[in-house]
């Protein structure tokens, strides 16, 4: 009698614990699991976490002896300062859209999602874990990026509290938008092994047309219009409003940062991405 009693006691937390404590608390527990899994994947660490840092180092060293970038009389910055905002915005897109898209597509293909669907794990808890992982890694990534920019390359970071408040708002909205788009785009690849080939080129093209590597106004007008439809263009310009002198607003289309338009575009993508997630996400593969 006594020997049989411990059996149900050991099994009960596994089967009913997550349902009892609720999806949000279960998701909070999964954040730790997702973060550990993220850093155990070398490709994720290199192509998402370290990529913006490596690009900042390359541009800063390559153009270290070049004249500063001018935005008008007496308004100039070095190349490290100029590229920093776009690479911060890229970190949001890489960690949210690219990393989540590839990760979830792989889990769907190898049967991980199907197995999770057969457990008491709520869908909300699964997403809390994924989005929480992105937020944790983005904070660590951006902190490291800003630290290297300031300490190694001498970038002058903002000292105004309003600029940092704007930074936090753009970051939270940008990360949220990138996450829902990553979950939505994970439905595109029919097989996990095709996820990288499907998703990475999309993210890479957006970087080149959104003012990350090239001055945005140097692009053809039609390409600026196309880029203006997508979130990265507005995340990059929002970050430029934080890290670049106010005089650089004259180098933006229309001579202003257009933060209101950027917020509206990001919010629209957030809502659209959430709707697509609700319509397309499933535990099983579409061909299962």
TrEMBL record:
InterPro entries: ABC-2_transporter, ABC2_TM, ABC2_TM_bact-type, ABC_2_transport. It is found in: Cell membrane; Membrane. It is a multi-pass membrane protein. The chain crosses the membrane at residues 45-63, 83-102, 123-155, 167-188, 195-216, 256-281. Pfam families: ABC2_membrane (PF01061). Residues 43-284 form the ABC transmembrane type-2 domain. Keywords: Antibiotic resistance, Cell membrane, Membrane, Transmembrane, Transmembrane helix, Transport. It comes from the Bacteria. Belongs to the ABC-2 integral membrane protein family. This is Transport permease protein.
């Amino acid at each position: 009698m006594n020997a049989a009693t411990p059996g149900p006691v050991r099994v009960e937390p596994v089967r009913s614990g997550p349902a009892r404590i609720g999806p949000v608390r279960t998701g909070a527990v999964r954040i730790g699991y997702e973060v550990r899994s993220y850093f155990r994947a070398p490709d994720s660490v290199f192509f998402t976490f370290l990529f913006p840092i490596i690009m900042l180092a390359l541009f800063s060293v390559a153009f270290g002896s070049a004249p500063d970038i001018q935005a008008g009389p007496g308004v100039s910055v070095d190349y490290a300062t100029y590229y920093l905002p776009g690479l911060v915005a890229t970190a949001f897109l890489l960690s949210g859209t690219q990393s989540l898209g590839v990760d979830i597509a792989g889990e769907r293909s190898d049967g991980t999602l199907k197995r999770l669907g057969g457990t008491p794990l709520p869908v909300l808890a699964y997403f809390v874990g994924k989005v929480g992982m992105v937020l944790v890694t983005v904070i660590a990534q951006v902190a490291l990026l800003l630290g290297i920019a300031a300490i190694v390359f001498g970038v002058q970071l903002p000292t105004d509290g309003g600029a940092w408040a704007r930074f936090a708002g753009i970051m939270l909205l940008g990360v949220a938008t990138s996450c829902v788009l990553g979950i939505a785009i994970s439905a595109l690849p029919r097989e996990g092994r095709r996820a990288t080939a499907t998703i990475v080129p999309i993210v890479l093209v957006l970087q080149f047309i959104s003012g990350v590597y090239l001055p945005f106004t140097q692009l053809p007008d039609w390409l600026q219009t196309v880029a203006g439809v997508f979130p990265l263009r507005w995340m990059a310009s929002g970050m430029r409003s934080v890290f670049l002198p106010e005089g650089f607003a004259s180098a933006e289309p229309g001579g202003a940062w257009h933060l209101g338009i950027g917020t509206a575009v990001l919010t629209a993508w957030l809502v659209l991405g959430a709707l697509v997630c609700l319509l397309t996400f499933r535990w099983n593969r579409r061909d299962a």
